[in-house]
Amino acid sequence: MIHQPVAAPAFLELPRLSQVIRHRLRNFSGGAGMALHYLESCCSKEDALAGDFLAAMQGSVEELCRFSERLDLLVDVLPAPQPEYLGTCLDQLRLRQERQWPYAHLAIHGDMPELTVRCGSWLVIVLQELVSNAFEAQPRDGSLQIEITAIEPLCISLMNPPGDAVGLPPLQAGPFTHARGGHDGMGLALAKRLCHAVAGDLATDWTDTRHICVTLRWPELPKGERSCPDPRLC
Fold first, then answer.
1. Residues 155, 215: contact at Cβ < 8 Å?
2. What's the rounded mean pLDDT across residues 169-173?
3. Cα gap 32→75, rounded to integer Å
4. pTM (two decimals)
């Protein structure tokens, strides 16, 4: 017997349901983190096995918290953007790479003037998602090159050096559709949403799977102007 898909009930408000689920997820993540900190303070430092278990659980809770934050950015109203110096944006990127992928190599090239990016906090998120996507697709000692190719408008290219066995994955059509197992496929969709909010774009040159380049175009808007046709996106 073949079961046909059944549509959601008409009374079910999916946006409201999404808010409730995300609220519960944040509460659970915060509570689990507090419980783990308490357990860590109670455990003997000589109990190596308990320490290993707690560290693994703490890592999982941190990933869940991060997932919840990224999900909010993807489907909820975006937080107000904050200005950042371009150099500060790239410094934050390098610090995260050193913390999360200490064996990987990140090279940044191009002119970096004292440019203030008015939506800099959003730019940091986009770059972090693109870099995370790239390094997660490579061996732990992989490499990535970032180049500032233009200033007006700001254009940033991310590419793996020629000859690397694995490169940047292509841009996905939407969230949760990533081909790699164990990954949520949310990062590129989030990056595209923020680019759309500033009337920017992402382009992929994937002529060779061993050498892939993603170019980010990030225009600066006049003060007080918003580019989103739907104010709920901004």
1. yes
2. 54
3. 24
4. 0.75
